[in-house]
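Retro notes
What went well: the complex prediction finally ran end to end.
Inputs used:
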Amino acid sequence: MQIKSSLEDNRADELAHFFDLIKPKIVEYVSRADPQSEKYEADSLGKFHGPEELKKIFSNNEDLETGIKGNDSKLEGFVDSVLKYSVNTWSPGFLDKLYASNNPIGVISDIILSALNTNSHVYTVSPVLSVLENDIGKKYAQFFFDDNQDTCGGLTFPGGSWSNITSMQLARAMKFPDTKEHGNSNYKFAIYTSEHCHYSVLKGAILIGLGLDNVFKVKVDKEGVLDTQELDRVIQNSKEKGYTPLYINSTAGTTVFGSFDPFEEVAKIARKHGCWFHIDGSWGGNVVFSQQHRKKLQGSRLADSITVNPHKMLGVPTTCSFLLLPHVSNFQGALSLAAPYLFHGREGDDENFDLADGTMGCGRRPDAFKFYLAWLYYGTEGFASRVDHAYSICKDFVEKISDKPGFSLVVGSKQNLPACLQVCFYYRPEGYTSDLCTPVTRFISRELHKRGKYLVDFSPNPSPNDSQGEFFRVVFNSPILTPDTVDDLIASIVDAGRDFKPQN
Amino acid sequence: MQIKSSLEDNRADELAHFFDLIKPKIVEYVSRADPQSEKYEADSLGKFHGPEELKKIFSNNEDLETGIKGNDSKLEGFVDSVLKYSVNTWSPGFLDKLYASNNPIGVISDIILSALNTNSHVYTVSPVLSVLENDIGKKYAQFFFDDNQDTCGGLTFPGGSWSNITSMQLARAMKFPDTKEHGNSNYKFAIYTSEHCHYSVLKGAILIGLGLDNVFKVKVDKEGVLDTQELDRVIQNSKEKGYTPLYINSTAGTTVFGSFDPFEEVAKIARKHGCWFHIDGSWGGNVVFSQQHRKKLQGSRLADSITVNPHKMLGVPTTCSFLLLPHVSNFQGALSLAAPYLFHGREGDDENFDLADGTMGCGRRPDAFKFYLAWLYYGTEGFASRVDHAYSICKDFVEKISDKPGFSLVVGSKQNLPACLQVCFYYRPEGYTSDLCTPVTRFISRELHKRGKYLVDFSPNPSPNDSQGEFFRVVFNSPILTPDTVDDLIASIVDAGRDFKPQN
């Protein structure tokens, strides 16, 4: 009996055919969202569709049984629907999240990763991508630690949360190596973080077996910056109650306000109490590329670990997150477990090239390659100009709304600009009488989305002293944004606000 | 002053240009690895290159400073080198890992994900992909639990390790909800697993703050199957010592031998002791698609959680891993933390569409889409024939080496075939005198790689009673494999073995 499968017959031809099928669709998709293109459509972002509606549209149950191989029209119909009903993140109106659109070189990096279909867990199967990850991780880390620090480096993790969680595990394994055998049982560990931190710090504490009781949330000032005197007091008090200080999380670019904690001060307190000092720079860490703004990171060289996500401020395709260490060999030193069926060891190499061995995971998509190629394409200079441009757009928006009736900043001012690339503001339409902005903010946000033009986010104040309800949080983080976009966004908010009725 | 960036000028044109630049390279790359193509080259897998050599080749320091935008020849040179020095996983000789090559529809799914550049953490930015993930997660889960079970479902995690780790956190949060506040402090939790389990179970135990002392490794029989009587005894003993049984890990397709634990029996013991019952089916779980082999999963309907990776046996691009639950709402119920700046809540929806809320992470690459599109393309029938074909190739190999001098199986026989798609065997070349196969196995494996033809893995026996050293572990998991590949592989091993000299 001949054993043969026809499932993957003529792969090269099929792939060539698929390239021809998908290219015009994707190029068209990007054109429609690009103000520079003749095909630009102002509502290309896409309108809101609820889950029930989409479930009906994407109900492919019969085809899932038999497959649609060989039926191009079904395949094209499916792809067209996916593109049509998704949010077109290439649109200048995608101002919702801390990441922006992809870009052409980013698509190329994803295509290469897909073609290689490798796994950067061991060197044997991913030699090139392991070398590039080590190389770019070191270069990146030297921006934060020290240009000449030869020991520093970084690895990617599948998102900022996992980078943060890994840093907690590193802290525990490095400072209390007996926990590898005994767990937390001999300690009452404490973690300290500002009340404006990302939720992954809390989830991380739960995951590593501490629980929320062991997380001490420290007050911030009205701009969302960690109060270091309070931090010192909180640590001192917790020690008196029998806690063992494990880990201080500080933030470079908080999620809501975009604030930067005072890292030099935090470092001193961490040293005083023998605590691990982590910087969650998932969002704001990449200001390191800007000559003008990198001073916000002063003290980063003193950190024990730094999370920073090229997929946010640098436009690398999602997801790409690095955890950087002053001594990169600690990944393997602290996290390795002998798994001889996978990690066979190689003689004469002083660097770790079996990268998964230094993580708490196994299989890894080689996300670092996307960063490497973006860096190679745009250069350090390109990244610098990207960050500076985004800050300029942000400034433009702040200056313009400062003069507009109805707008008021939640944090920052024309003179004292927001620390990062998001602007948090209230908007009250003419005649709006309530103190609380939640209903009008949600209404306008929904209206803008309904028009297919803007997707903007909103949030309550993460400090408990808030009294004006939810506000807009708009993120300016794309090289395609111009002052025209800013003008149009402001006009669109005012316009949508006119339709608000208090009973809505 | 006009604020303008030229970094992403003319994105649509640039993207169209890049498609034209990359398409011939990728198609050529696949052609060279495809025995059906005229351009097939037997050594297309690629030869081994050490890290020092590659570091010299990929030393782009000056270009990283200024960038190479606009310089197509530099870009092409870089891409060509990445392809040239990487392992070509499309080659029929890529038999090393538990995943096979990508396929054309897989590349299309990655291109669409890259174009969408969305983040499946909240519905607002990823409406279609959230609906598709819920839909396919449920359909997938019904294969393991019950066709009619309307409550079941699954979410993706960035690799089997994270799915397993998440299942441990679910177990703790569901069974001992007070741990969310107090951590492990009130308990001395115990985890039980076979000594052949994947290392992620151990790393997971460390990560969740238990430590290796709290992991009880249970003996296996000579085929690597968990001894359930021993499991019962170990749990009983641990209880008498004051441990609280938390979690039993059993495996569908162990990493080295590919064995399946007896899930019906494990379920009974789990119920008896009030333990969470997890199945790590990262590798073997997808036999669920085969009418002939799905009986190996008998009892899976009783599991509390199941990990299964479409990126392994089903040829979906890496990484794509699901954690399936009988009650999918428990993801959010057990793992959610209020984060009102991200999860705004929506009225009238009884399903969770803000998917990150039910995970311990935040940003998520929507890996489920790759699985959805592969399933839609090949159909349930295609997946079934894929799995059955791979088993036939495996059988062909086992039958052929059973008659060949020098070959001996570590586990299984012609009559009692290996349980999964890998074959573990020793090979001793003619005249080889040592009992221990480690040097000859490593030599042959390295030789095959040097020839650019085959990448095969090797491993020590995970049971301590092993006495013959390391053996080959070859994985037959691709629709392009034929009996000709099998014949050629056997001949190549014999041939490479001829060059072995004991002093090597």
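What we learned: Chain A is about 40% helix and 10% strand.
What to try next: split runs per interface for comparison.
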